[in-house]
Specification:
By secondary structure, the protein is an all-alpha fold. Helices cover 76% and strands 3% of the residues.
Amino acid sequence: MGSEGLSGMSSLQHEDICPSDIEARNLTQVTDFLLLRISEDPKLQPMIFGLFLSMYLITVLGNLLIILAVSSDPHLHTPMYFFLSILSLDDICFISTTIPKMLMNLQSHSRAISCAGCLTQMCFYIIFCCMDVMLLTLMAYDRFVAICHPLNYPLIMNPSLCVSLVLLSLVVSFLEGQLHVWIALRMTDFKELEIPNFFCDPSQILDLSCRDTFSNDVFRYVVAIIYGFPTIFGILLSYYKITSSVLRIPSSRGKYKAFSTCGSHLSVVCLFFGTALGVYVESAVSHSSRGSAVSSVMYTVITPFLNPFIYSLRNRDLKSVLIRLLKRGADIRR
């Protein structure tokens, strides 16, 4: 009786959500989706284009400088900077999945994105977003080993382990991206074809479905638990161990020195998860599509944009290498 009642409620819910005259069709039969504009005011379009183009170019240049600095200086050939260079590369890829398409739509005054383009953007967005989280977790583990087991640090964080961890993170991220694409391809009926964001947000694509919404919700929560919980738990556990170890250091100078090696990473972690939490709260509290899109900008654009500044300004070694590189470039021009 319970299962019949649930199925009855489910079918009633589907009838309320899905129009009766809707034609069943999967994603392969959909030609285009429509993306949301940040602003509908034509006078603001050139200013928005210039702003996002500038932020995109600064983000790419800043992260490329970090990669160049780490690869060119032997003193920075350590696990911490290796993970940082991979994070910088990932941030370039992450922001490149969304901003170029938005800039192109602003220039062409179009909101359309093809179905194949939307699936591709969604897949790469998930891959690089998941990779970001995995790398932040690996960097937290690296700081834990460096502070809590300094004598065994070179032995534990050896080059082969670091490369293996990055490759494992890439495989896990790729699998999550493919899983979302597979779920999206199973969708048959759509309430509408307008995505309430400036890019193909995976959760909002699932919200377009007007059938089997319960399964989509279950899928979202399961993926969040499987992929999100271990990484967040790993970061929290690493910093709990780091804090416990640092508090046992007798001198205040020693405590400051130990904590200062984590400052940049902790700032990026707070920025990344803080903006992600802000997007979630905004979407849960507000029913405004434009408000959610603006919140998504903080998560998808501002975080990669600020990462190079955080690491270069708070890290003395990296700052000195970057200044040396810029001086060398200025001398070459002369």
